[in-house]
Amino acid sequence: MARSPCDLRLLLLAAAAAFIYIQVRLFATQSHYADRLAEAERSENQCTSQLKSLIDQVSVQQEKIVALEEIKVRQDEEHAHLKILIKDLEKRSVQKLLDNNVVPVAAVVIMACNRPDYLERTVESILKYQTTVASKFPLFISQDGANGAVKRKALEYKQITYMQHVDLEPVRTERPGELTAYYKIAKHYKWALDNLFIKHNFARVIILEDDMEIAPDFFDYFEAAAKLLDNDKTYNFGKHGSSLGQFFEQYLEPIRLNDVNIDWNSEDLSYLGEDKFLTKFGKEVASATPLHGSDAVLKAHNMAEDVRIQYNDQEDFERIARQFGIFEEWKDGIPRTAYKGVVVFRYNSSQRRIFLVSPDSLRQLGV
């Protein structure tokens, strides 16, 4: 059957419309994928740029690490070299002090840490009297730690041998809550004494802390007492220190520094030997007037002669000490400064003495 021209035109029109629609859809799809492709290219370029930046940063850091490693190697070499120099200088300094064939009485070591102003005051006090006896009393400064100001101050004194103790190990206390400062001090003391007794072979060492001043007769006193110390088998201005100024203002600051030069080498000190001293001191304690009762302290105020008051335990001692205004500290089961349990002091600037004795003191004194 033949179709009419009208039907053919309609079919061509429909086919043209379909073709145009398909072309439009293809163009839209191509545009969409072109946009996505462009976005992907931008993301890739951005990632590439970031990766390149990271690579550059890593490269810079690697260069820095290499440079730091080289610096560390140089510093380690310099540190080792300085240690050798310090040991050599220390050896030469000590040898120079001993070259004049004078046998030293004792090495004098100032224990320092982080107080350059205190150290200077102590050193200047010592040098006033040490210069004339330098060969008998070689002078050392032992610093604990790496405080730069203290080290610079110590090295200003060419006549003093400088030693430095650096310990980076963590401190382990025996009991919780203990001050670590005392452990650090103890380690420093052992290190310094090992150096002086073992390394430098001194027979005696006098220890001063960096908050002390000495009297004019300091060196004569120790020289005269050296033999006594050799035969003895019985075993300041520093407000800011490891004890946190404990008792300083009340008990230590009022102490007067002796300014009289005594020729101790001409004095007879034989009575300070243990046997003689024990007998002499025992007689003095025994001859003091005993005071008893709760009003014993009040009675002591009104007496002109030596008196003896017994304390029963730590609490009793601290009570009596507070009434007299004396040091009431108790360490390791005995009062501070006690000898055979006896604490002796002069009261109210008089010559009379007050003996505080434990229940066992007279027996220990052989009385």
UniProtKB/TrEMBL annotation:
Entry coiled-coil feature ranges: 37-92
Keyword annotations: Coiled coil, Glycosyltransferase, Golgi apparatus, Manganese, Membrane, Metal-binding, Signal-anchor, Transferase, Transmembrane, Transmembrane helix
EC number, UniProt record: 2.4.1.101
Subcellular location per the Swiss-Prot or TrEMBL entry: Golgi apparatus membrane
Cofactor(s) of this protein: Mn(2+)
This protein's record includes keyword Transmembrane helix: yes
Cofactor note: The cofactor is mostly bound to the substrate.
Protein's pathway: Protein modification; protein glycosylation
Record-stated family: Belongs to the glycosyltransferase 13 family.
Protein name, entry field: Alpha-1,3-mannosyl-glycoprotein 2-beta-N-acetylglucosaminyltransferase
Biological source species: Miscanthus lutarioriparius
